[in-house]
Amino acid sequence: MCIREGAANWKAQDMKLEDFRKISPCFGKAETIVLQGWGEPLLYKDLIEAVRIVRKKGARAGFVTSGATVGKEFISELIDAGTDFIGFSLAGAAAKTHDAIRLNSDFEVLLENIRFFSEIKKEKKLDKPRLHLVYLMLKDNMADVPLLVSLAKTAGIHDIILTNLIHINNGWQEGQRIFSCTDPPPNDFEALIRAAETEAKKLKVNLRVPALRPADVPVCEENPLKNLYISSEGEVSPCVYLYPPVPSPFKRIYCGNKFETEKASFGNIFREPFEKVWSGHKYAEFRRCFEKRLRDHRGSSQADTKIAEPPAPCRTCHKIIGL
Q: How high is the pLDDT of residue 186?
C-alpha cells in the first residue's frame, strides 16, 4: 500500500550524518524537527546521534515509525538521547488487519516495542518520549477504528491521530480512501468514527479526526508558511508531499483524476544558506499565495469575496481541500 508500489525509479536514500550536521545550525530556529521523510526512521543507522544533535540545538525531536524490531537497548538509548515524541503507525487494531495492510510491519512486534518504551520510561522516571498512535483510515480497516481506543488505553497511550490516505498513486489506494471529494462519505464510516469518539471520551483518550469531506481551508495542515521539508539530498520543499524520491513529474491521483505533478524545490540547503533559500523570490511567491488566501478567507463573509488559487503544485493535493 506504500506510495512506492506504483512509483517507478524510487530512490531510497538516507541523509549523510555529515550533511545533517552541516544544516544543524538552522535547528535552533525551529520548534520541532521531525526526523522522517519517505522511509522508516528506525532503519537510519545514525538516528540516535541525529536526536542528540537536534536536542543540543534546542528543538524538539521525534518521528513516526511502523514498528521495526529494535530491542530494549536501542529503545533505552533513544530515550536517553532525549527523543521528545514517537508515533506508532497502525493500520489495524488487530494483527489480522494490520499485517495484511502493512506488509513489512508486525503488529505484535509493534505492540511489544510500545510496551518496552513505557516500561523503560517508567524505570528511568521520565515522561518522554510522548507516545501516540497514527492510524491510516482505509475501507479495509475502518471496522477496527472503535477498537483502537481501548488498544491505546491498554498500551498506556493517550493520543491517537486518525489520518486520511493523502498521496494516492494507484487504483488500489484510490479504491481504499474513505473520504469523499463531492458526495458525503458513507454513513457507516462516520458512525464508526462517532463510536470511536464516544469510547475515547469515556476512556479519556485524545482522538484527532480529520475531515471526510472537502472543506474550505486557506492553508493546508502542512502549513508551508511555518514548515518545510528537506530531502536526503538537501532539497528544500514546502512539504513532504511535494518532493517524493522519484523523478519529476510524479504521478498523483486527486479526487479520482490522474495528474502529473512537478516536484517543488526552492533551493539546496547543502549548497546555500538557509536564509537565502527561504527568502528566495520563487519561494517567497509560493508563500504569498497562502498569505493572500488567508486574507481572502478572513473576508469571505462578503458575498463577492473569492479565495485566491493555491500554488500550482498544491492544486492536486487532497490536503488543500482540508482532508
A: 78
Q: Would you state the pLDDT for residue 249?
A: 92
Amino acid at position 31, single letter: E
Cα 288 from Cα 88, distance rounded (Å): 35
* Residue 129 near residue 85, CB atoms below 8 Å: yes
Instruction: Give the pLDDT of residue 297.
Output: 84
Judge contact between 280 and 265, C-beta under 8 A: no
Query: What φ, ψ does residue 252 adopt, rounded to 5°?
Result: -145, 135
What is the per-residue pLDDT for 308? 86
* Cβ-proximal residues to 237 (8 Å cutoff; 6+ apart), any chain: 228, 229, 230, 231, 243, 263, 264, 265, 266
268 DSSP β-pair partners: 235
pLDDT for residue 322: 92
- Predicted TM-score (pTM) of the model is 0.91
> 254 and 244 in contact (C-beta within 8 Å)?
no
Q: Report residues of the chain scoring pLDDT below 50.
A: 1
Task: Report d(CA 250, CA 11) in Å as an integer.
Answer: 13
Residues near 44 by Cβ (< 8 Å), separated by ≥ 6?
14, 35, 50
Q: How far apart are CA 3 and CA 268, in angstroms?
A: 24
Cell triple for 4: 512506492
